[in-house]
């Protein structure tokens, strides 16, 4: 089966305030919005994939019979997502974040090479920007 999986298509994070999340991911991080569905979700293009931001209270509800039959899902507590960033752009991203008032929680220089920075979105999700080489990907 492993050779059939081509990579990650989407990553989901859960929030309590969709408006604040939309302002952060679109306004601060500069992701291009694909769509927003009321107070349920907002989706963003992120490189070759998609970042799904769900209102945690809405996605735990079962779909009605006339909707797409996506099973209820969600999580409690902070999630995590890591954005792939080139070494050349990592400091630029850190400056963009700090200029927007977003604190850099941690910077890690990985033993196998590469560097990453950690910060939080308005919902408290742990976000990371990292060089792909931290996973041996060039």
Summarize the structure.
By secondary structure, the protein is an alpha/beta fold.
The SS-based structural class is: alpha/beta
Which series of helices and strands comes N to C? EHEEEHEHEEE
List the total number of helices.
3
> What would you call the shape?
globular
* Average of the residue pLDDT scores: 94
CA-based gyration radius: 16 Å
Strand order of the largest sheet: 1-4-3-2
In CATH terms, what is the architecture?
Roll
Q: Characterize the main sheet.
A: 4 strands, mixed
Strand content: 25-35%
C-alpha end-to-end distance: 24 Å
Fraction of residues in helices?
10-25%
CATH topology group: 2,3-Dihydroxybiphenyl 1,2-Dioxygenase, domain 1
Number of domains: 1
User: Which regions contain 5 or more consecutive residues with pLDDT less than 50?
Assistant: none
The count of DSSP E runs of length 2 or more, i.e. the number of strands, is 8
Name the CATH class: Alpha Beta
CATH superfamily: 2,3-Dihydroxybiphenyl 1,2-Dioxygenase, domain 1
């Amino acid at each position: 089966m492993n050779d059939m999986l081509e990579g990650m298509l989407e990553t989901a994070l859960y929030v309590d305030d969709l408006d604040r999340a939309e302002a952060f991911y679109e306004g601060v991080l500069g992701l291009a919005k694909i769509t927003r569905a009321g107070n349920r979700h907002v989706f963003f293009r992120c490189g070759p994939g998609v970042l799904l931001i769900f209102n945690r209270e809405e996605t735990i509800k079962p779909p009605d019979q006339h909707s797409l039959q996506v099973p209820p899902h969600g999580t409690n507590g902070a999630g995590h997502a890591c954005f792939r960033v080139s070494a050349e752009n990592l400091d630029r991203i850190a400056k963009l974040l700090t200029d927007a008032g977003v604190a850099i929680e941690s910077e890690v220089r990985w033993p196998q090479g590469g560097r990453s920075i950690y910060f939080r979105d308005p919902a408290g999700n742990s976000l990371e920007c990292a060089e792909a080489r931290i996973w041996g990907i060039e």
